[in-house]
Recover the amino acids of this structure.
């Protein structure tokens, strides 16, 4: 049987990471990958570190603690900027999973279909990684490298997610496409955050998930939207070429061709909702 | 590590490894087995508990996080004095629990909602319960129960002689809603040894075992093929082709190779890589085409052409008749492997008692298990005792052996209790599936829309072993005409072995696959002639007096036309609503479809008797000895309702003894929708037999009324009142037997394959998103001729649950070996996917059945996929030739259609 550490302080946790541990918080990805076998690895349980949980204002933005659950996020009073990530929070598993699963866990697990990633990409989120050597911040888009691959070193913990404030009124939306209503792994999902300037798009950030090894921003589309009035014409800006960063695959849920086509349709609807 | 926390309001201490799952600690350490484990992966929600006032999956909570926290489980819902909570009462009255394995999770999720929202609407219920899967109920009655929980209605009590037809709460219901019912994994003794099965990672491979000595030194035993006295089992006497443990050759991925027996922690800690197996993988035979190719490698060496069997039905001259048809429709339809996905994985334990072996396991068929275990162990059947546990869903999948032979062999050898509980991936990899089918159908009719000819060939992938393949291949040719009168018929069924999981029994035995084909043909013919699709079916419906393709004249109880009559007003209304909706622009298109079916009750042209016994003991205990296993469908209640009225005493006075092969007679298997019709008729006869004995003793007439108080039985015959003191009379037993009258089918498939048939018609309204290819089923209306609804609530439960599975078959379920061996990659409908369902019960009495009843277990599922697919065609013009109609498949078909019309 392995060790099981459950420190109350972050520095204790970081000290422990001088040697390899499997990090455990909400358990919603940890246990499913260990069905029917004895668990004998060394475990660092970070759920008791109060400083890692909760949402607060920090400087020019918000700090989302690593072990903040999806339900915590839903219950938090946050500006419309967070509407999209809240919509995603409602689609993460069932209520049971939302009550236990953590934001950082979703990012560190780095599934190509992680529901939290596109909306956080669309929020231009950064992750804060801590180790005994200190902390560093990385853009989320840099942090997640691919399917189940992140930039987290074994001696680091993802301690928080930082979301910058927007200067202007912001709108954000999230859409998910799956083959059933609840408890479904996305075939395609998309998230948008748009800054509104005089009724037009000031800046736009759009991300699509489950269509590449990691969710991707769509810079060409974002650029194409700038300056467009937020009305029914917004969807006309969308062009298939904007989806170039996506590299969908065939799997049990859908074909690659379908994903490409569906991503386009989902994006159009997403823009329509943003404009509505 | 010692951990203290609050459990249902009481402080408890637990010690063990902190990484232990809360679900395991509750069940194993703290003895609260009300919390069920269906997947250990957060996919099914059966283990839902409340933790600090929020619902969570207890399989995902480490005990290391539990210090000082508060857990509520299903055992804490009722009051300390046993008073049921309002929510529990509501579940009971609405029939919201069927098998009961998801019920604790459903209750806890619902409780979590009701604490915050005492009078929720449907959407709130769906959101709150979306994380718990149910495979039995179709969720309808669960939603009703939660929405009515604030004011549950009173339980119905039937007066003496009025039990049949009453919506009685299921007799085992309280056990199911309190967490007290004991399933396969709930009854394992603490001192039992555990088995972990090492399974093949290859679909086809030869292998040799290395030196097992080192492993044997660490374990109680390591079983291989050499340890199995007779290493072959199978459903029919001539198909004992499946080894308990593979012997040098594996034929499907997931096949059992080696069984590790030892203490639980040790067997679970041994990785597959530590077991010395040298594999030589071979190219597997995948799919019907590969299996039936001229040069195909053989899956089983003694089965030439990989053919399991073939056969068909011939009547009139179909070939010639087509030439005279005014309209002909043709098509080929393919279906996938479908997984039963009962929420209870296979589980049980065994012990040697002297020269007998006792098996406590989840099953649908105790007597077949008994005889099969006797065969495997080379014992006499009397040396085997099967004690069925509660069965957490079966749907045909628990008709085959699973854990039984390994626990029996190990317990026999070691003289200690031995348990085996499948994990979810293991259950999915090892167990049988629905047969993938390719059905090629051609139907023709005259200018009036009367069917003239039918030619259907159904080819099945039966997987690596025969299992129930012969049953499927026999049943389908009989049913392939659909429930219609067709004078000229040629139907054919054939099944081929492949290197895939054995395809076995799954609710409908191939008929759901065939129904997709014949119903598509009905739609096409109706459209060709410009006849309404429902009216076309009505015109051709088999009616009493008609002769079927096997030459059987239906004397009674053929209520399809009545079912369609009942649907007609709903159909017309929906037609108008859909037309109005589609007049609006947008990517959503609606459509309606109708599906019909017939289903022969019981075995095909084979004896399948049931025997039942009712006993009245000297102390007045009235017992139904019931061998008809209740796997959630409600036979415990149905049998008692029937026996009670036949005897003339109230249901409430009955005690039940169920399934134990030492205590009950053989009532056959719970399959083929046969229990109400066959065992019900036997229960009726047993009740009548006991009544006759009592009337004789009291010298009373047939109309006498009985009442029982303690050991005193009072018989009122008109003005005369006689009492019998049972203590003096001695114990009384009534016995009843029924075997439905059938005949063998001749070379042309002519004969009487079934004594009676159920009929049904369902209509579906769907909304298709034509941009995304997604289908949302908005409503289903289901009209079923059940002969007589013994308990309408339970009948509706069967229909609603069947519909959910039919919806899954049509739209989302596809088992791919090695890729969908869990409940997040293999999708079954959630509470948000099953629409509102309206059941219309048609009672065209079957004189052979108890009070006129037939069966409804499988019929609920059969017409659903055809109705949905017909509705998709109505909405979009796409005829689905392959199911499941996943979004990408529908979108592909839509694109083809768009190209075709723009040209």
């Amino acid at each position: 049987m392995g060790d099981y550490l459950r420190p109350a302080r972050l520095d204790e946790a970081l000290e422990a990471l001088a040697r390899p541990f499997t990090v455990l918080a909400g358990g919603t990805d940890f246990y499913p990958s260990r069905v029917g076998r004895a668990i004998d690895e060394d475990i660092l349980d970070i759920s008791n570190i109060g400083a890692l949980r909760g949402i607060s204002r920090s400087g020019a933005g918000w700090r989302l603690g690593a072990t903040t659950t999806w339900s915590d996020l839903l219950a938090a009073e946050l500006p419309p900027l967070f509407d999209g990530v809240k919509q995603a929070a409602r689609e993460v598993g069932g209520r049971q999973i939302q009550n236990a699963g953590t934001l950082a866990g979703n990012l560190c697990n780095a599934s190509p279909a992680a529901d939290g990633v596109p909306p956080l990409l669309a929020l231009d989120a950064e992750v804060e990684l801590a180790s005994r050597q200190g902390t560093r911040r990385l853009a989320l888009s840099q942090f997640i490298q691919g399917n189940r691959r992140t930039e987290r070193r074994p001696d680091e913990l993802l301690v928080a997610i930082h979301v910058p404030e927007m200067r202007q009124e912001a709108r954000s939306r999230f859409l998910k496409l799956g083959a059933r209503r609840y408890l479904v792994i996305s075939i395609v999902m998309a998230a948008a955050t748009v800054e509104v300037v005089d009724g037009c798009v000031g800046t736009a950030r759009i991300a699509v998930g489950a269509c590449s090894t990691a969710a991707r921003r769509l810079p060409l589309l974002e650029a194409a939207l700038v300056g467009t009035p937020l009305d029914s014409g917004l969807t006309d800006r969308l062009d298939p070429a904007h989806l170039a960063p996506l590299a969908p695959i065939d799997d049990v849920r859908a074909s690659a061709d379908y994903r490409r086509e569906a991503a386009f349709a989902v994006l159009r609807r997403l823009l329509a909702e943003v404009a509505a | 590590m010692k951990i203290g926390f609050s459990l249902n309001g009481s402080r408890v201490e637990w010690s063990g490894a902190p990484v232990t799952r809360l679900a395991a600690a509750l069940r194993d350490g703290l003895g609260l087995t009300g919390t069920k484990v269906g997947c250990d992966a957060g996919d099914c929600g059966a283990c839902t508990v409340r933790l600090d006032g929020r619902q969570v999956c207890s399989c995902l909570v480490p005990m290391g996080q539990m210090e000082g926290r508060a857990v509520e489980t299903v055992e804490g819902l009722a009051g300390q004095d046993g008073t049921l909570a309002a929510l529990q009462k509501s579940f009971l009255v609405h029939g919201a629990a069927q098998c009961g394995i998801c019920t604790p999770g459903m209750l806890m999720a619902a409780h979590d909602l009701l604490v915050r929202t005492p009078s929720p609407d449907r959407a709130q219920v769906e959101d709150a319960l979306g994380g718990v899967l149910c495979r039995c109920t179709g969720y309808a009655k669960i939603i009703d129960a939660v929405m009515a929980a604030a004011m549950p209605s009173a339980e119905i009590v039937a007066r003496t002689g009025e039990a049949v037809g009453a919506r009685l709460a299921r007799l085992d219901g309280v056990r199911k809603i309190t967490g007290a019912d004991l399933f396969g994994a709930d009854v394992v003794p603490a001192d039992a040894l555990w088995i972990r099965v090492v399974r093949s990672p290859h679909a086809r491979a030869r292998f040799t075992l290395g030196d097992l000595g080192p492993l044997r030194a660490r374990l109680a035993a390591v079983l291989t093929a050499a340890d199995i006295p007779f290493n072959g089992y199978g459903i029919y006497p001539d198909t004992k082709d499946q080894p308990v443990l593979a012997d040098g050759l594996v034929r499907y991925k997931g096949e059992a190779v080696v069984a590790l027996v030892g203490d639980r922690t040790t067997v679970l800690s041994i990785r597959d890589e530590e077991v010395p197996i040298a594999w030589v993988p071979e190219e597997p035979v995948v799919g019907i085409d590969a299996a039936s190719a001229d040069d195909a490698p053989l899956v089983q060496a003694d089965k030439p052409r990989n053919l399991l069997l073939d056969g068909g039905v011939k009547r009139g001259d179909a070939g010639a008749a087509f030439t005279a048809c005014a309209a002909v429709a043709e098509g080929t339809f393919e279906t996938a492997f479908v997984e039963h996905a009962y929420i209870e994985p296979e589980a049980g334990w065994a012990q040697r008692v002297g020269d007998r072996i006792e098996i406590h396991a989840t099953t649908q068929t105790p007597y077949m298990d008994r005889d099969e275990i006797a065969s495997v162990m080379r014992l006499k059947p009397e040396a085997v005792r099967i004690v069925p546990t509660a069965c957490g869903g079966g749907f045909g999948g628990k008709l085959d052996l699973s854990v039984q032979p390994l626990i029996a062999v190990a317990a026999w050898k070691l003289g200690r209790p031995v348990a085996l509980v499948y994990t979810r991936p293991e259950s999915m990899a090892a167990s049988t599936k629905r047969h993938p089918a390719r059905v090629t159908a051609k139907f023709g009719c005259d200018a009036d829309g009367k069917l003239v000819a039918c030619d259907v060939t159904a080819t099945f992938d039966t997987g690596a072993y025969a299992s129930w393949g012969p049953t499927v291949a026999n049943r389908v040719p009989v049913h392939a005409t659909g429930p219609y009168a067709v004078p000229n018929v040629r139907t054919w069924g054939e099944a081929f072995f492949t290197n895939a999981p054995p395809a076995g029994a799954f609710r409908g035995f191939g008929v759901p696959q065939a129904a997709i084909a014949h119903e598509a043909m009905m739609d096409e013919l109706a459209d060709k002639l410009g006849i309404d699709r429902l009216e076309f079916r009505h015109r051709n419906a088999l009616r009493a007096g008609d002769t079927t393709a096997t030459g059987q004249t239906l004397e009674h109880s053929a209520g399809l036309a009545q079912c369609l009559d009942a649907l007609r007003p709903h159909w017309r209304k929906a037609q108008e609503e859909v037309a109005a909706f589609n007049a609006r622009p947008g990517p959503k298109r609606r459509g309606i479809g109708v599906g019909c079916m017939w289903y022969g009750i019981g075995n095909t042209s084979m004896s399948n008797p049931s025997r039942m016994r009712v006993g009245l003991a000297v102390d007045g205990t009235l017992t139904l000895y019931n061998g008809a296993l209740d796997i959630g469908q409600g036979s415990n209640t149905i049998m008692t309702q029937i026996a009670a009225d036949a005897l003339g005493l109230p249901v409430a006075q009955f005690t039940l003894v169920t399934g134990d092969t030492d205590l009950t007679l053989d009532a056959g298997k719970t399959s083929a929708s046969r229990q109400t019709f066959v065992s019900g008729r036997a229960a009726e006869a047993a009740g009548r037999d006991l009544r006759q004995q009592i009337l004789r003793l009291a010298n009373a007439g047939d109309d006498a009324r009985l009442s029982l108080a303690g050991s005193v039985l009072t018989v009122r015959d008109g003005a005369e009142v006689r009492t019998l003191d049972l203590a003096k009379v001695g114990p009384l037993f009534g016995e009843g037997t029924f075997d439905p009258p059938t005949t063998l089918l001749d070379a042309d498939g002519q004969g009487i394959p079934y004594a009676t048939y159920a009929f049904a018609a369902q209509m579906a309204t769907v909304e298709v998103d034509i941009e995304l290819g997604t289908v949302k089923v908005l409503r289903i209306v289901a009209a079923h001729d059940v002969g007589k609804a013994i308990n309408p609530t339970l009948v509706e439960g069967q229909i609603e649950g069947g519909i959910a599975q039919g919806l899954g078959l049509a739209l989302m379920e596809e088992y791919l070996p090695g890729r969908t061996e869990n409940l997040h990659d293999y999708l079954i409908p959630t509470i948000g996917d099953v629409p509102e369902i309206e059941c219309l019960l048609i009672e065209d009495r079957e004189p052979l059945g108890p009070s006129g009843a037939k069966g409804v277990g499988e019929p609920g599922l059969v017409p659903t996929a055809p109705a949905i697919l017909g509705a998709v065609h109505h909405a979009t013009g796409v005829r689905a030739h392959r199911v499941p109609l996943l979004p990408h498949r529908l979108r592909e078909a839509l694109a083809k259609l768009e190209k075709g019309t723009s040209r």
Notes: DSSP finds nine helices and 14 strands in chain A. Chain A has two domains: 50-164, 169-275.
